Amino acid sequence: MREVNWHTVKEWTTEAGLPAVAKLTPWGTFNGYIAVPEGHPLHGVDTTSSFGDDNELADRVNRAAHGGTTYAGPGLSNISGTGATANTATAWWVGFDCAHHGDFSPVTDLHLFELRDTYPDRTAEEVFGTWRSLDYVIDCCEAMAREAREEK
After folding, report:
1. Nearest to 103 by CA among 31, 51, 50
2. How many CB atoms within 10 Å of residue 147?
3. Nearest to 74 by CA among 50, 49, 43, 48
4. pLDDT, mean over the chain
5. Which end of the chain is more exposed for a tag (fewer CB within 10 A), N or C?
6. Range with the poorest average pLDDT among 4-13, 24-33, 92-101, 134-143
7. Burial of 34 (0-12, 13-18, 19+ CB in 10 A)
8. Which residues contact 113 (CB under 8 A, 6 or more apart)?
């Protein structure tokens, strides 16, 4: 089976002090992740299925993520491990993707260009969906990190 590479395009420390990573998928969409350290109330929590489980912290982070969190786990591949992610070997990563219904995927949605002629009275976003840029993903990660702060 061929390994699919997701390219890390940015690693940084959020304004809230948590490591973050933005990745570009093979489909041309971005994913965003933040890391919480051991001892943090979200460490080990499957935020992808905890929405509404009386976990206010997980709910806040879920709402800040584009489309809700779609990943919660102990590691990410293809990060450099330098700078913001240098000490994240035991971190719990929480993230989201930008390949939901209504999101434009440059690679997989190319076949939709013929639809533009079919619906000439609709805007490009109505036909193709919305492009979620790297800046958008960074903003979402920053919002997730703010919500993940324990002192709310």
Report:
1. 31
2. 21
3. 43
4. 83
5. N
6. 4-13
7. buried
8. none
